[in-house]
Amino acid sequence: MAFHVGPGDAAHPVRRPLQLRLSQSTATLALAAAFLPTALGHEGHHMDKIPEGEAISLDPIDTTLWVHIFVQMLAFGILFPVGMVLGIVKSRWHVPVQIFSTALAVLGFALGYWHGGRQFNSNNVHVKAATPLFFLMVAQVVLGLYLKLHLERGIHGRIRPVFRILHSINGKAFPVYAWVQMVFGGITALGFCQGDHIGQCLAHFIMGGAFIAYGVLLTILLLVGQIWLRRTGRSQEFFDSAVIAAWGCVNTFTEHRWGTAWVRNDWQHTSMGIIWWSAGLVGVWLSRDRHGAPKRNFIPGFVILITGWGMSAHPQELMISAMTHKMFGYTLMAAGITRIIEVSFILRDKPGISEDGTEINSFQFIPVFLLYAAGFLFMGATEEQMALLAASGMDHVAYVLILYSLASLVFLFTMALLQIYDRANPLPKPVVNGHAVRGDDARLRDVNEFELDGLVSDDEDEERATRRKLLRDDGLEDGPDTPSTVASTVGRNSDRVA
């Protein structure tokens, strides 16, 4: 029972369930405030063991820091996304899950500054990103607490819609915050992406993350987004091609440091940007037919294919790096080829297998999963990672299999979140006589009508056609197994026997 004060209403007494929820939220907020000095006080870290020119010391990661890593991965990587979906579907578990996630996150923040063992430069990117993330989390708790009060009187009636929008946007962006912060955490823990390595780190992590994000978006559209896509009046390739063209424009002018000599990688990266915006514009043009209706096309799959071919031949200094990049290129090529096959031969240029978007061909999951795998392969192929692997003795086969395993887990988690959403917001099914009809039932009814054709008399056919026409005009057409049909058939059989 929620506490509600409406215009002209007297304040209703606050009931016990709300008191419990408010006390839990207030306790979480108080806990966050108590740890705030700890979260901001990273200047107290000792850096006396860090060698000159390095970002970390040679000490191992201690147990406290490992607990920090696993707690934050659980809170930000799993529980916050689950709570976000529960909030979208307005589940009663949204508030408890988010309160528990916030409490874990606050504990993780504290553990990150209480650990011993390996020392880090206090000016690292993970620490810099932690402070705004902490304040965004506190702001989310405050907004959720305010919205839970259901205050709508006076000025609250004007600011409540704004707070609701801010709460929604911030909550939906939390998985993105979490992803970026976890990447920063891995970089900081290993002391990577410093000095001259920053540029190639940015290229690998941004482009690899983009492929994973593309796979997530395709998963959403495949499982729950077909109805929304139909409402936009545009084909999926329009949006894909527009993003490809925009990204290509950025790469064309940023992959080479202007004013310096051109090297082999600069030529490849810049020319790849050119093909992206050139082909992307073609894809936008082909996304409508001559009558202006949405039209599927092959361009996004082709761009992915040609990019994979280019990356498979990317020059590398280390053998393990060359083999990892080659596998990344092959994976991306496979994603492009299977995407073209899906659009042209599986779907035959249709938006989906079925009109309601609920039926999915198993082949459609292949290009989506390969995009996840390609993203992880590219993110895991930076210069410093390859040097670390070469010194460790691990070969490229084991490393590629590990990255494919990570891609599988993220793919699984994405589908699990969409399953939670789909259970609360199922797609509408075809309705006949007020009852939902599954695809199998509809096909069975068509088969029965086909097999019975010719076994009924011409008089019955004519009578049935007349009755159906009248009922159709009134919007009351009966199916083959409705009571009125059965009664009519029994009546005719009785007359025939008499």
From TrEMBL:
Residue ranges of region Disordered?
A: 463-498
Boundaries of each DUF2427 domain copy? Answer: 49-150
Q: Which residues form the Protein YTP1-like C-terminal domain?
A: 178-421
Source organism of this protein record: Dichotomopilus funicola
Q: Where do Polar residues bias regions lie?
A: 482-492
Q: Does the keyword Transmembrane apply?
A: yes
Mind telling me which InterPro entries this protein's record contains?
DUF2427, YTP1_C
**Which keywords does this Swiss-Prot/TrEMBL entry list?**
Membrane, Transmembrane, Transmembrane helix
* Source species, domain of life: Eukaryota
Q: Where are the transmembrane segments?
A: 65-88, 95-114, 134-151, 172-192, 204-225, 298-315, 327-348, 360-381, 401-421
Q: Print the organism lineage.
A: Eukaryota, Fungi, Dikarya, Ascomycota, Pezizomycotina
Is Signal given among the entry's keywords?
A: no
Q: What is this protein called?
A: Uncharacterized protein
